[in-house]
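Check out a protein:
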Amino acid sequence: MTMNRRSFVKNAMRSSVGVAVSSSLPLSLLASPPASAQEDYKAILCVLLAGGADSFNILVPRSTQAYNQYQSRRSDLALSQSDLLPLDGTHGGVSFGLHPAMSALQSRFNAGQATLVTNIGPLVEPTSWEAFEAGSVTLPLGLFSHSDQILSWQTATPANRAGTGFGGRLVDALANYNLGPALAGNISMSGNNSFQAGAAAGSYAINPAAGIRSIAGYDDNSIFQQAVDQLLNETQASMMQRVYADKMQSAIDTGELFSAALGNAHSFNTEFAEDSFSLAMQRVAELISVRNDLGVGRQTFFVTYGGWDHHEDTLGLQAEMLPALDAGLGQFVTSMEELGLSEQVTTFTISDFGRTLTSNGKGSDHGWAGNAMMLGGAVQGGQLYGQFPELVEDNPLDVGRGRFLPSTASDAMYAEVARWMGVAPENMVNVLPNWPNFEGSAQGAGLNGLLQG
C-alpha cells in the first residue's frame, strides 16, 4: 500500500510513536511523549479584553453606602443597584454584585470556582500616591496608553517595551514537561502576541474559524503541493535558501502534526455559542483534549476579545459585549469539567487598563488599575482577592478622575499562576523579573492561596 507523507504524519501522531517524519523536522517534533508528561497536566488560558474594559462596571459594590459612593462617582455610567447579580459573602464588610450580563460568572463564583482580583494593574516597583506625585518611583512606560499598557500586562516587564512575555517565560521554565512539538506549549487563537514570546519557546497561531495554517494553496492544490515538496527536497545553493526552505518545511510539518492531532479531538456535549469568542474558546478546549497526542504537560493559550475602548455609550456597548464574554468563559469551564480537567486548567482575564470612574459625558476614558476575572477548579473562589478601593474622590489611590493606582501588582497574580504551574521559588525571577521588588510588599501580597492543587 502506498502511503503519502500526509497520511504518514497523521498515523504517526495517532500511534504516539516517535518516528522520523521528515529529515527537516526539528528534533523537538520527533520526541514521543512519555506517560509522565501526560499524567501531570496543567494549562492557563489568558483572555485579553483589548481596548481597556470598564471593569468597575463588571464588579460593583451593593452595600448601601458603598453603592451610593459608586453611583455618585460614576453618575450616568452607574448601573442600577437592583440589576446587580449578588455575590455570596462580603469583602471588607461590603457586599458586591456583578453586571447583570455575567450570570455564568456569578454561578461559578458562588460555587467557589471563580473570583475577581480587585484593583490590579502593572507596576515596576511598590508605588504610593506620594511617590507617584513626587516622581520618585519608576512607573510603567506609556501609562494610560493602549499599546504600552497591553504590552505591560503581556510582558510583566512594564519598564521595557520589548522582550519576552510572561507566558513564554513560563513555558521556558517548565520545558521539561513538554516533549512533543516545540510550538505546542504556547498556542494562540489571536495571532502573534507578546504574552507567549519566550527566549526558547515560540508560539503557534491557529485561526479559530479557518483552522490550522499552512502555506497558501498547499492544502488545496495537489500539483502545487507536489511542486513545493520537490523544491524543498532539492539541495539549496545558499544559506539563505536553506534557511527559508527549512522554515517552509517546518510550517508544513507542524501544520500537519496539529491537524493530525485535532483529528482526535473530543466531541463535546458542551454547547458553545456561534460567536467568534466562543468559537475561539471551543478551539482551545479541543486542543486541550488532544494534549496527550501533542505530548505536552504544560501549556498556555491566548485569546483576544477586543472592542472595549468605550469612550461613548459605555452602558450600551457593555450590555452588547458582556453576554458573549460571560457565555464563552462559562462554556469553556464546563467543557473542562467534561474532560475531567477542571482543576488542571485556569482561565484569567487581562486588559489594557481599567477606566476612569468619572464620565466624559458619553463614556469612560483610559485608567490604570481594574478588576481581573479568574475561573477554574483550582481557583479558591467564592471570595474576592486584593483591595477593592473606596470609590470616593479623595481616595489616596486616585491619581485623577477615578484612575486608581493598583493596590495589587499584576506580578502578584502572575506569581500565583507561576507557582501553581510548578515554577520553583528559585526560578521565579526568571519568569517574573520584577517579582523581587514585590515579594513581601503590600502590593505583592494578599493573593496567597488563590490557586491550589
Q: What stands out?
A: The chain has 15 helices and twelve strands.
